[in-house]
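Example for tutorial group B:
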């Protein structure tokens, strides 16, 4: 007995049917919001990113219906909209939970425990990367750097920060989310659902009382460069001698303020080169004993140092 091609899961190359439209009342509401967004831009196609957030706020992910709506509103092809929607990871392509729990597994967070947190949550929730719990509450994923390395390891829930996490604290966090208990981010506004977050990202105000005033900040390590750019004085640092002297400074000893030219570590001390020490000839000398044009540039790096 033979089976049909559909039963065997074989595609016959038939074109996909057009995406179904939104119900009339939903479309009318979304069109009003979309026109408000589009009016902010001199070129309507620039509104595509916030419009994708808008349709994501309606269904919790970007559906074919949502992409067709964006294409209609911006006079684009669905291929153009799809190319953008599939490029950015903030746009979900399938149903997901009320809370997107992202564990940073980039280098620093991973070293500080991010990998262990992610593995622990996969086992605890019984889902893999991108998986959603059966109750529809939590979607788990590993994510790239969130520019919060001084708080590593970092977990984000609907793009709000939960800093200095551990496997145990992360498990408590997802349990609280699933049970509906109040959860406060380390910094930033209180949590809202993923759909509510998507609407805010579309450019609409957060209407929850007091939410706008709730804000966070980068950590001290992240702000050092900003403070220096503003002309603020960096805190003084103690520089220990390199001649084998004691590393414990007397309490009444004046703190040494390093100069900009001073090296604070033997690891970055200047190395002897032909530019700084004539007794170390440059490896760029030509075979006939003459100096190559490169070696005449005393300020330039040697071949060993690189560009």
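The residue assignment follows.
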């Amino acid at each position: 007995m033979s089976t049909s091609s559909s039963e065997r899961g074989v595609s016959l190359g038939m074109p996909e049917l057009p995406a179904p439209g939104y119900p009339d009342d939903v479309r009318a509401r979304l069109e009003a919001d979309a026109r408000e967004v589009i009016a902010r831009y001199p070129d309507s196609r620039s509104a595509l990113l916030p419009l994708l957030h808008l349709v994501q706020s309606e269904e919790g992910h970007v559906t074919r219906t949502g992409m067709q709506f964006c294409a209609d509103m911006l006079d684009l092809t669905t291929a153009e909209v799809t190319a953008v929607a599939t490029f950015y990871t903030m746009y979900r392509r399938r149903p997901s939970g009320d809370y997107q729990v992202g564990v940073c597994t980039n280098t620093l967070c991973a070293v500080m425990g991010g990998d262990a947190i992610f593995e622990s949550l996969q086992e605890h929730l019984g889902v893999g990367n991108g998986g959603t719990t059966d109750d529809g509450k939590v979607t788990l994923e590993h994510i790239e750097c969130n520019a919060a390395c001084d708080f590593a390891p970092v977990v984000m829930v609907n793009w709000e920060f939960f800093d200095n996490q551990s496997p145990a604290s992360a498990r408590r966090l997802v349990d609280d989310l699933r049970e509906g208990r109040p959860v406060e981010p380390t910094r930033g506004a209180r949590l809202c659902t993923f759909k509510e977050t998507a609407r805010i990202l579309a450019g609409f105000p957060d209407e929850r009382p007091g939410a706008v005033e709730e804000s966070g900040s980068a950590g001290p390590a992240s702000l050092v460069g900003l403070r220096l750019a503003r002309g603020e004085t960096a805190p003084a640092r103690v520089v220990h001698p390199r001649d084998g002297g004691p590393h414990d400074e007397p309490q009444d000893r004046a703190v040494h303020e390093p100069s900009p030219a001073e090296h604070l570590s033997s690891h970055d001390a200047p190395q002897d080169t032909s530019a700084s020490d004539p007794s170390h000839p440059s490896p760029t000398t030509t075979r006939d004993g003459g100096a190559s044009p490169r070696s005449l540039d005393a300020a330039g790096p040697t071949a060993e140092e690189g560009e």
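The chain has eight helices and four strands. Compare this with the pattern of hydrophobic and polar residues in the output above.
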